[in-house]
Amino acid sequence: MDKSKRLFLKSKRSFRRRLPPIQSGDRIDYRNMSLISRFISEQGKILSRRVNRLTLKEQRLITIAIKQARILSSLPFS
């Protein structure tokens, strides 16, 4: 096969689409500790958006909820 034709062939890999980390019914709130704890590392740090696979808006809301929970002593500061 010619080299120029090989470049245009698509890869045969199939990608499995992962479920989003936040379901449509989940409410992002400082009181929802089961949801918030999924986005915090073992050291208590907020995980990055790339690791969480969140949208920008969801990441902002999660960050605000985590900070509110820390202020209200629901979560420890790292």
What this model shows, in words?
This protein is an all-alpha fold and 78 residues long. It has 4 helices and no strands. It has helices spanning 3-6, 33-36, 49-52, 56-71.
How would you summarize what this structure contains?
The chain has 78 residues and is mainly alpha-helical. The chain contains four helices and no strands.
Largest sheet geometry: none
Give Rg in angstroms.
Answer: 19 Å
State the low-pLDDT regions, or none.
none
Order of helices and strands: HHHH
Would you count the extended β strands for me? 0
User: What share of the residues lie within helices?
Assistant: 25-40%
Q: Which overall shape is indicated by the principal axes computed on the Cα atoms?
A: elongated
Q: In terms of quaternary structure, what is this?
A: single chain
- Taking all residues together, what is the mean pLDDT? 83
Class of secondary structure makeup:
mainly alpha
Q: How many helical elements?
A: 4
Q: Beta-strand level of the residues, as a percent range? A: under 5%
End-to-end Cα distance? 58 Å
Tags for this entry?
78 residues; 4 helices
Provide the fold topology.
Blueprint: H1 3-6, H2 33-36, H3 49-52, H4 56-71
